[in-house]
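Dear support,

I submitted the protein below through the web form. The confirmation email said the job was done, but the results page showed an empty box. After a refresh the structure appeared. I'm attaching both so you can tell me whether what I see now is the final result or a partial one.
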Amino acid sequence: MARRTGDLPPLYGIVANAGVQLTSTSKLAVVHLVHELARRLPQGVDAYAFNPGLVPDTDLVRDAGPALRRAFGLLAPALSLLPLAQRARPAGAQLAAVALGPRPGASGDYIDRDRVARSSPESFDRAREEALWRDCAELAGLPAVTP
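What the results page shows now:
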């Protein structure tokens, strides 16, 4: 089996660090982009970062090895009973409420399931937010106009 990046040796096809690091980094990038987008949007148009929590009844472990996929499939019903987890339908309803319901908070806020929450200290870095916006605009072939 080919080894993917990560610090931990593979165990039943699992390399934990690589997936966790990629997920954390991509979520941080989304929060950075939401902050920058909120500064650029016209008054009355809002942007939010939404965290549904752990949603075990999705394809969360689709790229894991067969042992982890099987174990997760057996544990998923119990995991969705934990306070940090929920099933896909309630998570979707919460996202719809954020998008369609009354304004849940200030534009740029981080919505953790059904409430505004403070995201990590690392997510508040204006220089990184602006740099990521410029990089995304360049990749898309768009001008990165400063607000």
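Response: this is the final, complete result; the empty box was a page-load delay. Helices lie at 16-40, 66-79, 88-100, 126-140.
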